[in-house]
């Protein structure tokens, strides 16, 4: 498989007030193959969102380079969709119009509303087509964002704890849906979470980000089929190993 994303020695130092600096990332090296589902796992504040924002082209690294399909990333691009913790929908458009919005803008209007309805069904939001975002819970808004993102058929999806606000049942249904979508498309996903069980349920690779400044401390390849059984001895073994690492090292 060819590299979809390559991060070469990425560092990020934020300037704080006065003369203070915060080194959020240092020397991050990572290659993501096309079609991979890479989960970046780490404690709160270890630099996960910063890393994802750099790959999205929203934040420039202080040093190092990110390439996607061999081209340097220096700005956001519609082919790299970033889903953040905070759902971002246009408040004056209905749910259905929000999902259809990106495709409509790009002139991809064939079966537009039918496709938007199908994606809403896949994220279990049928029946809410005519609602405004303000009339939905945060978790429901996040599902609409996911439908909108996937309707655009991006080849790279960057997900920053997208299911953090969802209840356990909805979250596990969306995990199943993500896996189905992954099997049906060539989509490459980088998914950030601090939830170990979520990482084990989804990742074809799990990379642990930690340290000061944040860098990749360990990596696990999870060659297990979906849907995954948390009782799978291989997954349980990896879980124990990661738990030990978190306890031993200040990840
Ligand atoms: N714009 C910014 N200016 C200054 N410091 C920042 C900025 N963004 C992030 N940081 C700092 O960089 C570090 C990494 O932050 P980041 O949001 O990437 O962590 P995270 O692992 O995503 O955390 P969480 O899981 O809590 O969302 C933190 O110490 C944070 O305070």
UniProtKB/TrEMBL annotation:
Molecular-function annotations in GO: ATP binding; ATP hydrolysis activity
PROSITE patterns: ABC_TRANSPORTER_1, ABC_TRANSPORTER_2
ABC transporter domain: residues covered: 5-238
Keywords of this entry: ATP-binding, Nucleotide-binding, Transport
Pfam family, one: ABC_tran
UniProt xrefs under PANTHER family: ALIPHATIC SULFONATES IMPORT ATP-BINDING PROTEIN SSUB (PTHR42788:SF13), TAURINE IMPORT ATP-BINDING PROTEIN-RELATED (PTHR42788)
Name by which UniProt lists this protein: NitT/TauT family transport system ATP-binding protein
Source species of the chain: Desulfoluna spongiiphila
Upper classification of the organism: Bacteria, Pseudomonadati, Thermodesulfobacteriota, Desulfobacteria, Desulfobacterales
């Amino acid at each position: 498989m060819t590299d979809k994303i390559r991060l070469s020695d990425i560092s990020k130092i934020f300037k704080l007030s006065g003369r203070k600096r915060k080194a959020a990332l240092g020397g991050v090296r990572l290659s993501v193959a096309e079609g991979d589902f890479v989960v970046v796992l780490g404690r709160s504040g270890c630099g996960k969102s910063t890393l994802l924002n750099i790959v999205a082209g929203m934040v420039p690294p202080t040093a190092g380079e990110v390439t996607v399909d061999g081209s340097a990333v220096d700005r956001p691009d519609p082919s790299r969709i970033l889903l953040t913790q905070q759902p971002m929908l246009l408040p004056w458009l209905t749910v259905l119009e929000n999902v259809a919005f990106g495709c409509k803008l790009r002139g991809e209007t064939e079966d537009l509303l039918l496709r938007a309805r199908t994606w809403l069904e896949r994220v279990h939001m049928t029946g809410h087509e005519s609602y405004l975002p303000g009339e939905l819970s945060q978790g429901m808004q996040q599902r609409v964002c996911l439908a909108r993102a996937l309707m655009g058929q991006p080849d790279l999806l960057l997900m920053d704890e997208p299911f953090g606000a969802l209840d356990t049942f909805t979250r596990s249904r969306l995990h199943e849906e993500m896996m189905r979508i992954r099997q049906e498309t060539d989509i490459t996903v980088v998914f950030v979470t601090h939830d170990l069980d979520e990482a084990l349920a989804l990742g074809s690779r799990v990379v642990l980000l930690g340290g000061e400044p944040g860098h990749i401390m360990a990596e696990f390849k999870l060659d297990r089929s979906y849907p995954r059984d948390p009782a799978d001895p291989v997954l349980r073994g990896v879980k124990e190993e990661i738990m030990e690492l978190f306890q031993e090292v200040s990840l």
